[in-house]
Write a structure and sequence with these properties.
The chain is an all-alpha fold and 227 residues long. It has six helices and two strands. It has a two-stranded antiparallel sheet with strand order 1-2. The longest helix has 31 residues.
Amino acid sequence: MTPGAGGRGSLLVCTSAGPARCAPAAENELAAFVTLTNVVTSDSWILLDHERNRVFQQSGPNDWGSYPGSSVPVSTTLALVGFVGLCLLVGAVGGSITARAVHHWYSTLHAPIGTPPNWVFAPVWAVLYVMIGVAGWLVWKRLGAAPPLRLWGWQLAANALWAPAFFGLHSPALAMGVITVLLVLIGFTIRAFRRIHRTAAALMIPYGAWSLYAAYLNAGFLLLNQT
């Protein structure tokens, strides 16, 4: 008795004629094992490909959500709305903080050369937030929640902190520190995106350029309004 494929026992009889009689049975056992291995391997690759396309889903008892079962797959269109919506939400929160200060504290500051009219900021940032969201979505669609997308999330978090620091706390110095970190994160994000999706990286470049301009304005307000 020898172990067969899948752990089942199979009878292998050797007669007095010698090992030659055992060869056909052994070959059959080997062929069955190879076939089973190929099926398991094929199923594993299908499972891996399926898991790669399962986004924001639970796949085990320790994952988010109820168990057993899994959440409904998120469509690419719904994901795009989520990415862009998140960025616009960050902009809306920052805009509400800015609106409360722009006609009072901000209007009393000495502005550096090249400061644009107040009405320019809202439409420019709206366009940039849409581009940031699309860039993140493109990378997500290709790789899922990979490290480059985490960088994207960190730069968005730094972006969300700038308006509270500058307009909320009336602190150009603190805001200067925030925007410096933001510029570094944007640079790392663009570099990471370039290796994955050139269009996504290109969509982040105007955002980086505008943030660099904002850093100049921030530094100007800091230097011109020291008490």
